[in-house]
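Q: I'm a student working through a structural biology exercise. My instructor gave each of us a protein and asked us to get a predicted structure, then write a short paragraph describing it. Mine is Glycosyl transferase. I'm not confident about reading structure output yet, so if you can add a plain explanation after the tokens, that would really help. Here is the sequence I was given:
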Amino acid sequence: MSKLAIVILNYRRPDLLADCLASIYAAPPRCALEVWVVDNASGDASVPLVRQRFPQVRLLESPTNVGFSRGNNLALREIVAEASATSVLLLNNDTLVPAGALDGLVAYLDQHADVGAVGPKLLLPDGSLDRACRRSFPSPEVAFYRMSGLATLFPHSPRFGRYNLTYLDPDQTTEVDALVGACMLLRRSVIAEVGLLDEQFFMYGEDLDWCYRIKQYGWKIVYLPHVIVHHYKRAASTRRAIPSIRAFYAAMRIFHRKHYAATTAAPINLLIESGITIKELVALGRNLLLPPAARRVG
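A: Happy to help. First, here is the predicted structure for Glycosyl transferase. I'll explain a few features afterward.
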């Protein structure tokens, strides 16, 4: 019988976490279910909330904020070792899971033996598509189209719109390079085979790297749009804190160096590294130009 393990990483958002957990337990899947919450040293009401309102949750407390990869790995490591779950859902705390969504994802994985990971259509609060839920790998060519603005200028071009696959019908089931860690269902056996999240990535990029390794092992990755999950995605703020900005661009460097630098000409590598640095400096500068009351530094 199938058993689903859900892993939710939380950091200082007890309100979103409560809504996310409530949505899961309001319409649990037909298969056996266990939910893990890893609290990344929130130091707020998050841990008491889970203990009081959701005592069935397996709660892990990290003494420090260890980031997305290491935090999720605290639960993933135990799930793989216990080997009782057949599938594992990586789920953000800022998501709401409608009735039937978990069953839809689990059923697709059960019915397609060559698929290692599957993800739903993620909808933002305004009803638009979260474009990160189906992506191509950011190869030097694809990254150039995105960072140069060509992907924005020509979103319906199969050449320029490859990163977010904006030229494809968002309602079409599609084999893709990568999903997003906000909601991604994997076979537990695939995690055991390819390894846990790479802890070089503090946050951002770890989902791309995981999908890259899954594909290297010969598994398919599928975007499944008839399953919908709602994603707040920084609904509380339109600006990223300085550490978040730094982590975002650090992830770009790590991913490129790990997967593409060795097969890319040195001058191109230099251009890529320089481009990332320039984009990072611009983002940091924009943050610093905000009024002090609006600026986020942590």
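A: Here are two points you could use in your paragraph. Strands lie at 3-10, 32-39, 58-61, 87-92, 95-96, 115-123, 174-175, 183-187, 220-231. Residues 101 and 227 are 5 Å apart (CA to CA). It's a good idea to check both against the output above yourself.
Q: Great, thank you!
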